Amino acid sequence: MWIPRPPGQRQTEKGWCLYPMHAKQTILQLLKDTPEYISGEDISNRLGITRAAVWKHIRALREEGYEVDSVPNKGYRLKSLPDLVTAEEILDGLATKRLGRSIYFFDEIDSTNEEAKRRGVQGAPDGSLFIAESQTMGKGRLGRAWTSPKGEGLWFSILSRSGLSPLQISNMTLITGLSVCRAIRCQTGCEAMIKWPNDIVIGSRKVCGILTELAAEVGRIDYIVTGIGINVNIPSFPKELSAKATSLQIETGNPLRRARLLQAILLELEGALDTFEKAPGQFPEEYRKLCVSLHKRVRFFRSGEARDGEAVDISPEGELIVREDSGCLTPVYSGEVTVQGIYGASL
Ligand code: BT5
Prior knowledge:
- This protein has ten helices and 16 strands.
- It has helices spanning 23-33, 40-47, 51-64, 87-91, 112-121, 169-188, 239-242, 248-252, 258-278, 285-290, and strands at 9-12, 15-18, 67-71, 75-80, 103-109, 129-135, 153-160, 192-195, 199-202, 205-217, 220-231, 297-302, 305-314, 320-324, 329-332, 338-339.
- A hairpin with a 2-residue loop joins β9 (199-202) and β10 (205-217).
- The protein is elongated, with a radius of gyration of 22 Å.
- 38% of the residues are buried.
């Protein structure tokens, strides 16, 4: 199988890293691995470069936002890391086997979902991660726009070539939602909930949206692209979003290291996918507990007509089961479902 090399990167045991392994990256790793001061001489001996070159790389790291302390006769010490989502920062501590082992990082891109589909055609491997600091044309469902400000969120897509059938595709969105919800809860303590099918909310406002797309032939999926947008360190939203959107920073009052949250999400998702692929019919009970749509008044649309009822269950296929006011039980497969109290909806 042909595996494309992400631009400027090479494969190591841990995954992809910058290519060629630059002295700057080696110095960064040394600083990360050494809690005490390490002398310029020591670094220059280990790398076989001059002390002036060491200094040049330290300066470059500082320009990227790494805070490196330097004390005469002692050397250098890493004081703090910038909040970056580069391949090195993601791979450093990533515990997954399958997801995120090939990383395509972009400072700016139109949409990570679009890039994943472009690379999917070229053969990008299962589990590839496409991530950008900002998106110029981030997209939601039905052609809607997704706001993706630079450096303040996690805007990423995962390409999977798993064995799910087209009928199970909507479950991919639900499994992803469950994994993101678990990771947010675990990393921040926020009481994140899932608004079926593709939103994560905190209180009544949206903190994350999920967009699943697929390339398929009749009866067979070529690959699935799952796009995830999480508002992490967004301090405030424009007027048109402020009533319905929130960020983790707004909720906790503190900025969060995005690479750590991403690692937690990838690990959760890998485990959840594994479980689901082995037993596709068994939808996790935990989902029901975390689903804010259940046991609420909801409104959905059939043939352009609004229908109201109470959401009572999730089917094994991932449908929302609604007991309509007429009394009949209707499975809702996809689309827009308004939930009483979420984003200020009153039904
Ligand atoms: C979604 O659509 O919620 C799916 C969003 C998926 C975004 C990710 S980012 C990485 C990957 N690359 C992409 O291009 N997309 C994916 P939907 O349910 O249709 O919600 C879209 C609506 O949410 C918009 O019409 C706005 O009202 C609102 N919205 C836009 N940006 C938002 C944000 N940052 N936070 C909360 N709400 C937002």
